[in-house]
Amino acid sequence: MLAGALYDNEDLPNQAPIPTNLVTEEMELVFIKTSYSNYAREIEEHLPGRHWHITFNRDWGSDFQAVAYKNTQGFWDVKVDGDLPIELEQEKLLQLCPTYPVICTVRRRVEAEEAFDSFILRVKELYKQL
């Protein structure tokens, strides 16, 4: 079984041919056609306020977590989820990120993950210096 997910604002992948030597008699090929345009208005109406979770380095056991919320402009506001597991003064965090606890506003999930990881690395470095 092949499965995948597209996040908001991601490009659709190109079709990829399946080499005939990999196709067996037990396989069933299913062709799927998707259409965004038929549901565009309904989707756009329900996206604001939606969210997804980010963990540092994609490690679900990490104590460093953020949540990305869909804003009314169609972008994702990435915000630290709760308190950081490291004690730092608010002033220091604001020096690292003037919009803290909002880390960034991005268009795509990969941008959010990269920005959050970068922020956490800077937080850890600052904590070491204390």
Secondary-structure topology with pairs:
Elements: H1 40-46, E1 51-55, E2 65-70, E3 76-80, H2 90-96, E4 102-106, H3 109-129
Antiparallel strand pairs: 1-2, 2-3, 3-4
Write up this protein.
Strands 1-2-3-4 form a four-stranded antiparallel β-sheet, covered by helices on one side. Helix content is 27%, strand content 16%. It has helices at 40-46, 90-96, 109-129; strands at residues 51-55, 65-70, 76-80, 102-106. The protein has one domain (20-129). With 130 residues, it is of the alpha+beta class. The chain starts with 39 loop residues before the first helix and ends with a helix.
Which features would summarize this protein structure in a list?
130 residues; alpha+beta
Which structural category do the helix and sheet elements fall into?
alpha+beta
Shape: elongated
The major sheet is characterized as: 4 strands, antiparallel
* Average of the residue pLDDT scores: 82
β content, as a range? 15-25%
What's this, in brief?
The chain has three helices and four strands. With 130 residues, it is an alpha+beta fold.
